[in-house]
Amino acid sequence: MGKEYLQAANSSLGQADTFMKQGYYPKAALIFKTVKESYPQSLGLQKQVTASPMQLADKLNLCTEKLMEEGLVAYRSGEFAIAINVWEQVLGINPQHQVAQNSIQTTQLQIANLKTLNNQH
Hints:
Elements: H1 2-22, H2 25-37, H3 43-46, H4 53-76, H5 80-93, H6 98-120
């Protein structure tokens, strides 16, 4: 079982790194999160996984940072629905991501305010 796990984990990590390089941060993050959550307890197996739990956490953080930036670009372009969608992807990676939660709330309030203004004219 250990050998199969290592092959699957290391292959998946290689794929996740490729996704990151291509800008597919949600896909990369899903893989990093899955490997992190199923990280082996055996010290012998841990030494053979190509990324440590700390490295996996760093890569997950990088994915969320890139997605937050992507959401901000959409928001600044007035593409509020796209921004919210991107920030919801961040919450899929880290449900406690406070900045993403706040960004979604602020954008929803902005949408409501714009609708109110449009209805008044």
